[in-house]
Amino acid sequence: MAVLAVLGLLLLLVAAALLHLALRPGEVSGVGRSLAMLQAMTEAPGELRAEAEQPFADRVLAPMRARALRIGRRLTGADYAERVRHRLDLAGNPAGLSVDRIVSGKVICALAGLIVAVMVTLLLGPALLTGVLVALLGLVAGFFAPDLYLYQKAYDRAEQLRRGLPDAIDLMTISVEAGLGFDAAVQQVARHTTGPLAEELARMLREMQLGKSRSEALRGLADRSRIEEVTSFVGAMVQADSLGIPIAQVLRVQSGEQRVRRRQAAERRAQQVPVKITIPLVFCILPCLFVIILGPAALQIMDHF
C-alpha cells in the first residue's frame, strides 16, 4: 500500500508540473500553436492559398506528365510526332488522347512496367541475371504499350469500316436513285447510321463545307482509313466525278463489288479456323482426353505390376 501511495503521489506531481508548463505565461502550448497555424493559413495571401488548394492532378500529375513529355521527346525520333498523329487519325482520334499524351505515356508506362517487373522479381526470387532480363522486358513492354494500344484501336476501327461500307453504299445508291445528289446521299448515311464510317463521312462533308473539293475530301477519307475497300470506293468515285460518269451506276457497281469482297473475306476467315484451333486442341483439349481415357488403364496396369 505504501508503494502504491508513493507512485500515486509521483504521478500527481508530474501532472501538476506538466500543467504548469503548459499554462506558463509567455509560451504557447500545442493547441495554441495549432490555432496560430490555422489563423496564419487563413490570413495567408491568396496566391499561397490557391496553390495549396489545387487538386492533386494539377499539383502532382501535371508536372510529372510534363517531365515525362520532355524525356519522351528526347527518346523518340523527330518524325515520331507526325507518325503518332497519323496513327491517331487511323484510330479515330480517341477522346482524351493526343500526341503529347502518347509521348508522355510511353515514359510513364515504361516506368510502371519496370516497377511491376522488379516487384515480380522480388516476389519470385529468381537469379540475378533472370531478374535483370525480366526488368528489361517490363521496361520495353511498358515503353511500347501505347503504340500497341493505338495499333489495336486502328485495327478494330478498320474492321468496323470494312463491315459497314457495303451497307452504306447500298443506302447511298437508294438515295441517289431516289433523286438526291451524291452529297445529300452521303449526308443521309452520316445522319441515319452510326459507327466510324458515319463519323468519317460527316467529317468529309464538313471539309467540303469549309472549301475543299469533293475529290480532295474523298482522298482525305481514304488516307484516314487506309483499307483496300475504302480506297477502291474512293478511287471509283473520284474517277466518276472527274469523267462525268453517272453516280448511281458507279454506286451500283461498287455495292455489288463490296458485297463480294465481304463474302470472300468471311470465307477466308472460315478456312483459317481449323489452323487456328490446332494449338488449343493439342495443348489444352487432347491432354485432358488422354488423362480421362488412359488414366484408368494406367492405374489398372500399375495394380497388376
Q: Which percent bin holds the helix content?
A: over 70%
**Radius of gyration from CA coordinates:** 35 Å
* Class computed from helices, strands and strand pairing: mainly alpha
Averaged pLDDT: 78
* Overall CATH architecture of the domain at 158-269: Up-down Bundle
What keyword list fits this structure?
mainly alpha, Receptor-associated Protein, 13 helices
General description of the model:
The protein is mainly alpha-helical and 305 residues long. 85% of the residues lie in helices and 0% in strands. Among the domains are: 100 residues, no CATH class; 112 residues, Receptor-associated Protein (Up-down Bundle), CATH 1.20.81. It contains 13 helices and no strands. α5 packs across α7, α7 crosses α8 and α10 packs antiparallel against α11. It is flat, with a radius of gyration of 35 Å.
What is the compact description of this entry?
This protein is mainly alpha-helical. It has helices at residues 2-22, 30-42, 46-52, 56-75, 80-90, 99-124, 128-177, 182-192, 196-209, 214-225, 228-243, 247-276, 278-304.
